[in-house]
Each structure stands twice: as C-alpha cells, then as structure tokens.
Design brief:
single chain; 5-stranded mixed β-sheet; 4-stranded mixed β-sheet; 14 helices; globular; disordered N terminus
C-alpha cells in the first residue's frame, strides 16, 4: 500500500484520476479488501442474527480460506487494506476527531444506551489511543468495562462484524464513489469509515443517497457497473426504490446522452437473496452467471418485476421488460447465461445458498469464486473456463495470464456461512476500460 494520502493508481490519461470503474469486467488494477479479524470472533449464538449472520464462524478456517482468496488478488492487482489506510488517516487530528465523534455520538445504535457523561468518557478514551489501537478499536469494538458476562451489553462500541464485505458500504461508480446508506443499523459505521477513506486517502468525490432522501437505501452488492452508460441494479431488502430513484435523478441532472438502469426486483426472503450479486454476476461482456429461477421468474422469483429505466435529456422514463437478459438485449447486449448449480433445481438452490453465483471478475472471462460449488464450477468448465486452484496460483505454479478464460477457485467452508462470496469481499478501485 502506498504511504501517502493520494496513492498512485494507473491513469491512462495522465490526469491523476483516483478511481475509475466503468464496467464489471475490465481488467482489475486495484482493489480494496479487509482481512476479517477479531470482530468476527465477537459473535455468539445470541447476537449473530443481529450481526446479520446465520451462524458463528471458525476464525482459524476463515483465516486459511481468506489467505487463498487475497493471495490470488495480490498476484493480479494492487491490493489496499482498510485497516492499513485507516491507521494512516488517524494520524490526522481532524480526521481522528471526526471519526471518533461520529462513532460515539451520532452512531448510537449500541447494546448499551449511554448517558452523555459516559459518551464523553468513551470519546476521550478513544482519542487517547495511538492510531493502530484506535483503528483496531473502531473495527473490533470497545468492550464495556462493567460487562458482567450475563447480559448482551458487552460492547460500548459495537464491532463491525461485516467489514470483510468491502463491496457493500461503498461502490466505485465511474470516477467517484457512492457511500452507501446501509439498511441495518449494525452496518452504518462501515459507511463512515469508507467515506473517510475515499475522501481523504484517495481524494475522490463521494455521493450518498441518504443525503438526498433519508429513506433512500443503496448497497454495493446490488449495484453493477455494466458499462459507461448502464447500471444493473437489484431492488430488495438492502437497496430500495428510493435509492434507485436517487441514482436515476443523479444521472438525469448530469447527462444529456442516454443512460440506463436495469432494475431486477429480488425476493425479501430468505437472506441468501439479499443482493443482486447473489443471483447474477457478469463473467464477461457476453457471459453471466445467473440463478435460473430468476431468469424464468419461477418459485420465489414469480412476480418479481424487471424494469428498464431510461435517462435522456434530463428526463427519466420506466418500462417493464420480461427478464434481466431481455432488458440487456433491448440495449443490444447479447449475454449468454451460465446457470449456477447447473440444471438441477435442487442443486441450484443448494449452491445459490452458499454464493454460487457470486463471482468476482478479474478481467474479461477471468473470474474468482468458491470451490465448494462443484456443479457451478462444472458448468463453467463446460463453457470453456479453465479451472485453476488458488493454492497453485499463490505458489506460483500456475500463471493466470497464461489462460484466456479461467475460474480461480479457493476453498471455502466458513466464509460462505458469513453470507457472501468473492464479489461481496472486493471493492474495485480501478479497472481498465473494456
């Protein structure tokens, strides 16, 4: 990671842009990750549902699995880590004061409802920490010194249990960053940290739907930057209609040339359908991984609408389309589907539950995902994707650049139980144009 507050990123036009993502599949050059740490050990069966997990995780296996995942990315692109950047930012007294003040006084959704005096003491204690300890505390939480071991009020500042999913709380959209307005209070402070990172470290413009309307919600797992004139967005539990309206109105103000937002409605339950990237991801400009019942509008997806929003001459119009691929075809995109879980509906459901469609693109036809979804990987193999083992990539036995199309697979038994996959755990900062 670069040691200054404006890191060098590849800038083909020489103008020093700090972020640039205009597609889902342009060659990845830089990405933001967070190594899961102590915060995931601070869940119990009593609070894991509050933390938005369906189970508690084994930290030792999480570390092993995550090391393979990040090892592949480090072989391919420049990797930045949230905690490293946060430590550097906290050397700045104004940034430190802002993050502490906002965390203690404006993000009060904590198990312990504090009085003003206790809040003041907590803020003073945080401000007295060195930057490394404070960065860890903002992520891992601050323990209540009066916790007796028999109640749920262990933390005065709640751990950021979901910070490993760097995709969700911020989204690079072209040359700026959308700071997402999270749908659950337990994740709100993530956005605070990402706003500081992108404004003060990367030096880019940030926007937020909640600044436009307090009820507007967006999350990165629902936002796919398909092309310079096209977003594909999920509408469901995490991203709502107001959030999508914010995106439409933002581009309506800024653009005269046509711009499109293709919206796919998602079921409100179960939790495996929380984001669009749990059922749909681009593998290349002309291939996607998709959960077949969503395409067929069957089962839980019966009655889920697909809508094409057109922004032109500062006006916004809406039209229904039959399905997500039909919407893309309307825009002259012919995208071939590969079905997560293959063709057996029973297997499709099993593998979707553990992020079978949640692939992250390293470039055109070059993707990263969980090895455990065997039928999904087999479907990719049949579609011409070479199956590469993360261990061999990390050890240098296999060079990804030797393959035109590949899926790099890494072992995962614990990470999928957190409720996300490779795309969820990556926040792209820079991609080449397709």
């Amino acid at each position: 990671m670069s040691g200054n507050h404006q890191p060098h990123l590849p800038s083909p036009n020489g103008e020093g842009k700090r972020v640039s993502v205009s597609s889902e599949t342009g060659r990845l050059r830089a990405v933001l990750l967070h190594r899961p740490g102590v915060e995931i050990e601070r869940m119990t069966p009593l609070n894991c549902a509050h933390a938005l997990y369906s189970d508690i995780l084994d930290r030792m296996n999480v570390d092993i699995e995550y090391d393979r995942f990040r090892g592949v990315l480090e072989k391919w692109a420049q990797v930045y880590y949230v905690e490293d950047i946060l430590q550097e930012l906290l050397l700045d007294e104004k940034i430190r004061e802002h993050l502490v003040t906002q965390s203690v006084f404006n993000y009060g959704h904590r198990p312990v409802k504090l009085s003003g005096t206790i809040n003041d003491r907590l803020a003073e204690e945080l401000m007295s920490m060195d930057q490394k300890k404070l960065a860890r505390t903002l992520i891992e939480g601050y323990e209540n010194p009066q916790w007796a071991g028999i109640s749920d009020n262990r933390y005065l500042l709640e751990p950021l249990y979901n910070l490993l999913f760097t995709r969700d709380a911020s989204s690079t959209i072209f040359d700026r960053v959308l700071i997402n307005s999270m749908s659950f209070e337990v994740r709100e402070r993530e956005s605070l940290i990402y706003e500081a990172i992108f404004r003060h470290y990367f030096g880019v413009e940030t926007i937020c739907a909640a600044d436009w309307n307090p009820r507007a919600r967006t999350e990165g797992g629902d936002i796919h930057i398909a092309a310079p004139d096209l977003l594909v967005v999920g509408e469901g539990v995490r991203t709502n209609a107001k959030g999508i309206e914010f995106l439409a109105q933002t581009f309506a103000k800024e653009r005269t040339e046509p711009f499109y937002i293709l919206v796919q409605e998602l079921p409100r339950e179960p939790e495996s359908f929380i984001h669009l990237d749990m059922v749909f991801t681009f593998l290349s400009r002309h291939e996607c991984m998709i959960f077949e019942p969503m395409l067929r509008k069957q089962g839980l997806f019966a009655g889920c609408d697909t809508t094409l929003i057109t922004v032109k001459n500062h006006r916004v119009t809406y039209r229904p389309v039959s399905d997500i691929l039909a919407g893309l075809r309307h825009l002259d995109w012919n995208v071939e589907p590969i079905y997560g879980g293959g063709y057996d509906p029973w297997v499709q459901l099993r593998e979707q539950w553990h992020s079978g469609a949640n692939f992250f693109s390293l470039g055109e036809g070059k993707v990263l995902g969980y090895r455990r979804n065997a039928y999904t990987i087999e479907a990719l193999d049949k579609a011409g994707y070479s199956v590469l083992q993360a261990k061999d990539i990390c050890n240098g036995k296999v060079l990804m650049d030797d393959y035109k199309k590949f899926v790099a697979v890494f072992p995962a038994s614990e990470l999928p139980r957190a409720g996300g996959g490779a795309r969820c755990m990556t926040m792209p900062i820079w991609r080449d144009e397709c």
